[in-house]
Fold DinB-like domain-containing protein.
Amino acid sequence: MGESKFFTQFRELRNQTIAWADTTPRDIIDIVPEGMNNSIRWNLGHILVAWDNGIFPKISEHRRVPQSYYDLFRKGTSPYTWTEEPPSYIEIVSRLQAQTEEIILASDGKLNDPIAESFLRVKFVRGMFLFHLREEQHHLDCMKRIRKAALKATSA
């Protein structure tokens, strides 16, 4: 797959994620339904942090997202353990919007380059894109299940 197709896929998926986030009622974004580990806000923050850490250091660039986001949204964290106020939903969604083009601009011409930091069995920047495209789709699917459960719980 050529670079432009990777970037098109990324833009389309990110646009879906943002459009979905925009239609989510704000009164349920922090609900963690029974049997689930995280909230919609956490999943959106996690997508942001995962792409930030998954691309920029791999192309020898600095991360763009503040450390406080990593403290709240990296793998293994949970809203149950937060000791500080998370960023607003609007701020997270705005950062997701801006991140799309930031990543594409920084990665342009580099998808076939070896990654600068090891990650699982991934060898090239292209592999990081594939991993994070699947990861974002997974978290979008999780958020859809969370929204459905949260709406059901709040209407009962």
About this structure: The first helix runs from residue 3 to 22. The chain has five helices and two strands. The domain at 3-155 is CATH 1.20.120.450 (Four Helix Bundle (Hemerythrin (Met), subunit A)). The beta strands are 114-119, 122-124.
